[in-house]
Amino acid sequence: MKFFIDTANLDQIREAQELGVLDGVTTNPSLMAKEGITGRDNILKHYVDICNIVDGDVSAEVIATDFDGMVKEGEQLAELHDQIVVKIPMIKEGVRAIKYFSDNEIRTNCTLVFSAGQALLAAKAGATYVSPFIGRLDDISTDGLNLIAEIRLIYDNYGFETEILAASIRHTMHVLECAKIGADVMTGPLSSIEGLLKHPLTDIGLEKFLADYKKGN
Ligand code: E4P
């Protein structure tokens, strides 16, 4: 399973990279705005800065919602760095754009996916990644993890190569459950990854080992 971090915060990306288990970064316009990154030139520069920190794929989202606009913007994003994956929303023009990029060997991440049907369409169009937003489904009392299981089943039935990128991860249990179901990738906050290392028996055990060592030295 690949671990992506879902942020545009460079310090957090550096911290995750230093842990040695990071495979990529996802961003979106809201995450960029949260870091105060505004204006086209600053946004493009920020994507390059992220690519220079992390060894792996960096999703950069288009703002255009028409086919021609998405193609123009996506090609510009893809030219920034070979780690860039163009993030395209699951709308009709977006499906056309994903197909265009797939035919032209530009990698895509189909975002804002909330149903198995949308995921099927993204795979048919040739998306590199599909991003089902499990946390936002949970927020409206719908089982986000069940969507991951449905997509896994459909993709395995037909051998689709599109990778399931479980997005809108809110906590460590989401990561674990997605791993059990077989999501290819998770993207979430650093805390959802760091939560994996925590166990009270580890802390108690280490404390005891160190105390016993001190007794004999
Ligand atoms: C995915 O690529 C999105 O950026 C993200 O996971 C959305 O998460 P949120 O629901 O926490 O905003």
Automatic annotation (TrEMBL):
GO biological process: carbohydrate metabolic process; ketone catabolic process; pentose-phosphate shunt
Catalysed reaction, written as an equation: D-sedoheptulose 7-phosphate + D-glyceraldehyde 3-phosphate = D-erythrose 4-phosphate + beta-D-fructose 6-phosphate
Key words, A-Z: Cytoplasm, Pentose shunt, Schiff base, Transferase
Catalytic residues (UniProt): K87
Subcellular location, record wording: Cytoplasm
GO cellular component: cytoplasm
SUPFAM superfamilies: Aldolase (SSF51569)
InterPro entries given in the database record: Aldolase_TIM (IPR013785), TAL/FSA (IPR001585), Transaldolase_3B (IPR022999), Transaldolase_3B/F6P_aldolase (IPR004731), Transaldolase_AS (IPR018225), TSA/FSA_arc/bac (IPR033919)
Residue ranges the record marks as coiled coil: none
Taxonomic superkingdom: Bacteria
Family membership: Belongs to the transaldolase family. Type 3B subfamily.
Entry-linked PANTHER family: FRUCTOSE-6-PHOSPHATE ALDOLASE 1-RELATED, TRANSALDOLASE
Role this protein plays: Transaldolase is important for the balance of metabolites in the pentose-phosphate pathway.
Protein name according to UniProt: Probable transaldolase
